[in-house]
User: What shape does this take?
Amino acid sequence: MTFEQPSALWALLALPFVLVALGLWGWRVKKEIATIFRLDLDRLKESQLAKYGLSSILMALLVCAWALPRVPFLSAETAGKTGEVALLVDVSASMDARVAVDSPSRMERSKPILYDIVDRMAEQGEVKLSLHGFTSIARSHVPFVGVEDYPYLKESIKRVLDIQSVPGTGTSLGRPILNVVDKFSDSEGTKLIVLISDGETFLGLTRGVHEVERGWMEDAVQKATDKGIKVVTVGIGEPDGTRIPVYDARGNFTGEYYKLQGVDYVTYLEEVGLMEMASRTGGRYFSEQNVHDLVPFIEENLSLAPATEAVEESLTYRYVTHWILLAALPVWIFLARRYLLN
Assistant: This one.
């Protein structure tokens, strides 16, 4: 057994002197009381010794716990996983829609999903992640980075990724994928695009999949398939539709909603295009209701790290502080019930 803070054990040397000093002082007071009330000194002495004996055990255990004891053991480091995952997030105006003014927007609901992906990929070993926002085009916020740069990636999700953080008007599903597919490495075995959007395409002044968008989607499916890239899509939004509140420079709601041709614009979750892009590239579509299955699906599609990075045994440590505190608990309970509460 070793201790992370061995200097705390010096308190064990001081502990006997402290307890003896307290015991002698307490015994003198009890003797005075016993003389006044004619109490049995032998019985008081036994009680005093028992109490300070239990206190010594309790204090010694707490000092040992304070030193953070740990035991060494050999662990097998299993082979990690590798791959490239591009996080492609809709930053068009419709992602600022929300059910109520004080409820989170679609963009705000997307970020915890992204954080979960980053955190879970950190456990896989060699996965590279990139971050892109898109409207009618996609632009890179963070190029592919390894686990050592994940903190920077998370800060970019928090501070950079936002509504209209990418130029362009309207929203496309096909063209942004075309912008991203060439950013993958040719040598990487697993390539995934995780596309998060409400799925609502909007070009010019009309929404829906028109001829131009259909052409982009066909090209995106073909190019992704040729490069071995699976597109995983996540739908964020309300099928029944909701509006986009307008805020002033201070972030206060103006009482108005985004308008199109003079009337409040209602934006909907459109799942058909998202499902199509996923199924045709070998990916899968996830709604907000089953998004907890997203990361396991990504993990299943990652490649194992090369054999040269596979299983090794390493010496590591496990803390046993909780066991010492657990051992101290009965002593504390007995001491409290027998002497402190009487």
